[in-house]
């Protein structure tokens, strides 16, 4: 909320440069023509396409009303009423009298960043200087209402509800069904130290149904009830997503990245998506599927921010300013997901945001702070701490341990590269085969398979967050976990310092736990590949961290036993004496979790900060940095794309990745349209075309905009006009301006040319024309052109030679050209 108020004192700098976008027909197959430009005769079913696991509706316009919306009709009808009253004829000048809808964007198009900034600068000139008092008042209101931060409150509710439903699969609390297992036994006086999780108030389903908790029959009853609840939760999740908000499926981060780069997906951040994703996220996590809630919380936070944007004209009418708010919301999402406000800001800066000015940085920081404070007030983790996995290791790490830490980084990089390739191959198969036609059946089959295999193993039966917390734990004298099943010391002198224990030989309990963890590692690696991308909310942070934490714990226990039995080796001599606490397996689990998450997402700085905020392990930054960088280097050797960039490319979004280098020595003339053999570029002349001729050009093409030239012979560039603005202006002029007919002359010049007395009045459209479209010469190197597109956020630029218009280069042209260079299918770029 603070973001909206502090923006009142902001100022935008820079020149007033405007440029627009035009679609190229050579890159659009016939099946997509109707999607970009639906006609009145098209059915709604023809305007749907499957993107990112959701069915997208091209006819949905939540944020900007269509041409036939109420506001536009009221504007037109009121104008007609004034003219029909017998008043004088009015020559409409769109420069002085802007129309509703002009300057807005159609669905699945890219915004004009420079025009939006220019609009905001013009708005600032109209804001009075007395706004400072209002700003201070707004800050005061913020201080009073900070605990009501919607993302923080939603995250706390999601955590509590998911914990309760997860425990419901195993049993129910007799004193109140709304209590989870921990809260049910919280005040019980009948628990024992060895069985601290068992109390008379909490009963398993076998105890309720057959009256016994022991034996094979009771085990089968609990097994079947676990599968029943898992299927029920998964079924409700996929049905609600399919019925109410198809956009609520998946992680949401690839689409958020694309939206922040300037792409428009109407409804993706709407209220129905927010409500549905909040409910189904709880159900999907509780079903036991190998997914997490942390990634989707970024989507939830962005939905909250987008809804709040509609309360302020400044953000509702300016797409660029709205994206600054969404960048802050992405930081809030990570802040409430992990309790890591600083890591959330860095995550938004490093991984998600496309345009991140300095003032957005500290506003994002404050927004993340407010959200974290709200989450801390709710205390969803029940440990009076903000962080999700608090650890307290008693032994420092040693320099020799960097070798196994780097080994974990290599494992994380290999796992990340393997996972990305396998998951993208599976998702592509889902999109191109009949598998994608049955999303409900797919979710139920995967949920049944997961529950069937997961229940016998206690480490796969528990939730992902609980598993990671167990693996991060440092064994002490009070621990009864199987992972702490060491042989007990003979005398007290063999114990370590404080509550820690010296390295001990592994017992039977630990060996059993290691076998179970090895099986859990294989299961998690396989099941996560087919789970991520299904049509339920699914995050990737927790599953990736679970894989790395299991591998790290296994390696840590191995190093611990190696040091115990071989403390006289050279590598252990001097710092690992008998009876000392040398190796901390929980630290290896933490480093492995960071390595695997880094290998999948390719995060570096933000990941390290999130991990030490997440665990409170500030002392272990160097091991985290070593493992994270190693995993990134290893994964980049197999492909530079992270999982989110891979899904963006799979879905054909027009995202120009800033991390990808362009090294080809091509020129602008090699990429522009039209090319040799293509039809001539459709253009409009500044004062020699009639309304009928302009409408003919518009109706005969599917371009999103048209260059305006002096004449067909000279081809001297004058400006650029958007198709949407042109249609709105002509339609409105026919209704508001007397005498405008098909033979009326369309004029883009400042002064209309002289016409015969009997000629109809001209239609002046200079107000909707971009007078300064961005241009490059035909010999401009493409590496420079690509940098211009990235840094200015261009949708297109016009190509000229000595002032004469030659062609146009769009963002889609560049993406297709880069795909061809990388030996990828250029037709995979679906949108503009």
Automatic annotation (TrEMBL):
The keyword Transmembrane helix applies. Its main location: membrane. PROSITE patterns: CBS. It is a multi-pass membrane protein. Pfam families: CBS, Voltage_CLC. GO terms for cellular component: early endosome; endosome membrane; Golgi apparatus; plasma membrane; synaptic vesicle. Keywords: Antiport, ATP-binding, CBS domain, Chloride, Endosome, Ion transport, Membrane, Nucleotide-binding, Repeat, Transmembrane, Transmembrane helix, Transport. The chain crosses the membrane at residues 223-248, 269-291, 297-313, 325-349, 399-424, 436-455, 513-534, 540-559. PANTHER family: CHLORIDE CHANNEL PROTEIN (PTHR45711), H(+)_CL(-) EXCHANGE TRANSPORTER 5 (PTHR45711:SF7). Belongs to the chloride channel (TC 2.A.49) family. This is Chloride channel protein. It comes from Nothobranchius furzeri (Turquoise killifish).
């Amino acid at each position: 909320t603070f973001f909206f108020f502090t923006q009142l004192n902001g100022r935008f700098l820079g020149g007033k440069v405007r440029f627009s976008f035009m679609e190229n027909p050579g890159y659009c197959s016939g099946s997509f023509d109707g999607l970009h430009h639906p006609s009145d005769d098209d059915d709604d079913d023809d305007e749907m396409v499957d993107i990112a696991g959701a069915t997208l509706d091209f006819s949905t316009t939540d944020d900007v009303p269509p041409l036939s919306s109420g506001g536009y009709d009221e504007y037109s009808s009121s104008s007609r009423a004034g003219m029909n009253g017998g008043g004088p004829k009015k020559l409409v000048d769109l420069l002085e009298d802007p129309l509703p809808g002009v300057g807005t964007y159609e669905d699945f198009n890219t915004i004009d960043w420079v025009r939006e900034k220019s609009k905001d600068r013009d708005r600032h000139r109209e804001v009075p200087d007395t706004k400072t008092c209002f700003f201070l008042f707004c800050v005061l209101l913020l201080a009073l209402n900070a605990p009501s931060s919607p993302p923080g409150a939603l995250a706390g509710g999601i955590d509590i509800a998911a914990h309760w439903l997860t425990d419901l699969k195993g049993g129910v609390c007799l004193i109140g069904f709304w209590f989870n297992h921990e809260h049910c036994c919280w005040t019980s006086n009948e628990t024992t130290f060895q069985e601290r999780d068992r109390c008379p108030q909490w009963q398993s389903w076998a105890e309720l149904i057959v009256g016994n908790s022991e034996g094979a029959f009771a085990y089968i009853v609990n097994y079947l009830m676990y599968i029943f609840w898992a299927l029920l939760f998964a079924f409700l999740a996929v049905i609600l997503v399919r019925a109410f908000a198809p956009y609520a499926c998946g992680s949401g981060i690839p689409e958020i990245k694309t939206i922040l780069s300037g792409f428009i997906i109407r409804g993706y951040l709407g209220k129905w998506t927010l409500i549905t994703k909040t409910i189904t996220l709880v159900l999907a996590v509780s079903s036991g599927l190998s997914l997490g809630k942390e990634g989707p919380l970024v989507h939830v936070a962005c939905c909250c921010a987008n809804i709040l944007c509609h309360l302020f004209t400044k953000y509702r009418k300016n797409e660029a300013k709205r994206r600054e708010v969404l960048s802050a919301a992405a930081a809030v999402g990570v802040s409430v997901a992990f309790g890591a406000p600083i890591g959330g800001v860095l995550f938004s800066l490093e991984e998600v945001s496309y345009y991140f000015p300095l003032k957005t940085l500290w506003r994002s920081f404050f927004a993340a702070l407010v959200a974290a404070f709200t989450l801390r007030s709710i205390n969803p983790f029940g440990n009076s701490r903000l962080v999700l996995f608090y650890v307290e290791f008693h032994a420092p790490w040693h320099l020799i341990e960097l070798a196994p830490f780097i080994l974990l980084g290599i494992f994380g990089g290999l796992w990340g590269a393997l996972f990305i390739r396998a998951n993208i191959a599976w998702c592509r198969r889902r999109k191109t085969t009949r598998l994608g036609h049955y999303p409900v059946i797919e979710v139920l089959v995967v949920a049944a398979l997961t529950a069937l295999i997961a229940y016998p193993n206690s480490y796969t039966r528990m939730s992902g967050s609980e598993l990671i917390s167990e693996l991060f734990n440092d064994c002490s004298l009070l621990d009864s976990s199987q992972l702490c099943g060491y042989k007990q010391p003979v005398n007290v002198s063999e114990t370590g310092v404080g509550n820690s224990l010296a390295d001990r030989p592994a017992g039977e309990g630990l060996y059993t736990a290691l076998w179970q963890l090895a099986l859990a590692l294989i299961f998690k690696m396989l099941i996560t590949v087919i789970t991520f991308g299904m049509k339920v909310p699914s995050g990737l942070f927790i599953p990736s961290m679970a894989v790395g934490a299991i591998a790290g714990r296994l390696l840590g226990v191995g190093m611990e036993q190696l040091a115990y039995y071989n403390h006289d080796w050279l590598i252990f001599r001097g710092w690992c004496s008998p009876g000392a606490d040398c190796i901390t397996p929980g630290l290896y689990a933490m480093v492995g979790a960071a390595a695997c998450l880094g290998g999948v997402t390719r995060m570096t700085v933000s990941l390290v900060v999130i991990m030490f905020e997440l665990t409170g392990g500030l002392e272990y930054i160097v091991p985290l940095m070593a493992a994270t960088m190693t995993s990134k280097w290893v994964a980049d050797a197999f492909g530079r794309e992270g999982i989110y960039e891979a899904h963006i490319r799979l879905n054909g979004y027009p995202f120009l990745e800033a991390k990808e280098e362009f090294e080809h020595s091509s020129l602008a003339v090699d990429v522009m349209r039209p090319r040799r053999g293509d039809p001539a570029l459709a253009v409009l002349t500044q004062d020699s075309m009639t309304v009928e001729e302009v409408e003919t050009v518009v109706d005969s093409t599917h371009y999103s905009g048209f260059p305006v030239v002096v004449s067909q012979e000279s081809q001297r560039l004058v400006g650029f006009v958007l198709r949407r603005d042109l249609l709105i202006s002509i339609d409105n002029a026919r209704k508001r301006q007397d005498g405008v007919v098909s033979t009326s002359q369309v004029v883009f010049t400042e002064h209309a040319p002289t016409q015969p007395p009997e000629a109809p009045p001209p239609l002046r459209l200079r107000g909707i024309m971009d007078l300064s479209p961005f241009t490059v010469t035909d010999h401009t190197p493409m590496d420079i052109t690509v940098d211009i597109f990235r840094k200015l956020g261009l949708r297109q630029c016009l190509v000229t030679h000595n002032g004469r218009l030659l062609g146009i280069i769009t963002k889609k042209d560049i993406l297709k050209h880069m795909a061809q260079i990388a030996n990828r299918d250029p037709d995979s770029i679906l949108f503009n």
